[in-house]
Amino acid sequence: MDRGQTQGERKRAEEESTEGASTSSLVSPKATGVGSGPYDVFLSFRGLDTRNTFTDHLYHSLIKAGTVPFCVFRDENNIPIGEKFDSEIFNAIVQSKISIPIISENYASSKWCLRELVHIMDRKKSASHIVLPIFYKVAPSDVRHLKGNFGNAFHSSRKHFDEKDIQEGQRALNEVSYLNGWESQKIADGHEGKLIERVVETVISKLREDFQLDVPEQLVGLDDRMKEIMNWIDNPSINARMIGIYGMGGIGKTTLAKCIYNQLSNKFVHVASFQMFEKLPGAMEV
């Protein structure tokens, strides 16, 4: 901190460094079977860059996806009075299945965004936490090496950070830069609507993995039957169709039905009602 800085300047700098970190915006009750905790998705973003634009569009697309609403945690500046900011945020990360850090130009200029990212990356190592980064108008290499406008934003703000925030923040930025995510300017020539569609599709797919049925890892003799049924299913038709699997006990009817279900589940909106057919001994209907 420069000695010549006035108290007002220091206060403004602190406010700027905390603005944009994520606080709770729970819009619907938790639906049984979706995600692994109170939240399905945690959005980490720099409010100055994307709060009213990309992040807002992504948030509303996520909560409207499918018939079972997703519970999404994002910044709305509504942490209850008396609650500690950091504990509220970090608990939300722990209780979420997926984190989506939206790495924008000024993301690393906020110590709170850096702390969120550190917690997200630590959570990824210690649990089955999914991290889907979006590099919003920045290159992963600039995030990794702290170069370009992204690096300039970080270096110009680091005087307001603790040494621990600097070291851990750099480590988290380096780690997230190597993850398989999306570069906004490389998706559909920068058309953000297409990018949001892809993100939502991926989130839906990841969350529905919770509905996958257990089947043996080593299966013998099911491939040909699977291909035959899937070819029939994939054949376009304007009419509803039914699949009946029958035969003597012990020949693998239930296992075949589970395999078909696992392969088809991501294509259906009403996954919960689709899953109930596992309870019918040796039978499955679609």
User: At CATH's second level, what is the architecture of the largest domain?
Assistant: 3-Layer(aba) Sandwich
Output the CATH homologous superfamily of the largest domain.
Answer: Toll/interleukin-1 receptor homology (TIR) domain
Strand percentage: 5-15%
* Number of extended strands: 6
Number of helices in the DSSP assignment = 12
Structural class comes to alpha/beta
Contiguous runs where pLDDT drops below 50 for at least 5 residues: 1-18, 23-36, 270-286
Compute the separation of the termini in Å.
65 Å
Which terms summarize this structure?
single chain, 286 residues, six-stranded parallel sheet, Rossmann fold, alpha/beta, 12 helices, disordered N terminus
Report on this structure.
The chain is of the alpha/beta class and 286 residues long. The chain folds into two domains: 7-209, Toll/interleukin-1 receptor homology (TIR) domain (Rossmann fold); 212-279, no CATH class. It is built from twelve helices and six strands. It has helices at residues 7-18, 47-50, 54-63, 85-94, 111-126, 140-145, 148-157, 163-177, 192-208, 223-234, 253-264, 271-275; strands at 39-45, 72-73, 96-103, 130-131, 134-135, 182-183. Strands 1, 2, 3, 4, 5 and 6 form a six-stranded parallel beta sheet that branches. β3, α5 (111-126) and β4 form a beta-alpha-beta unit. It is elongated and about 75 Å long.
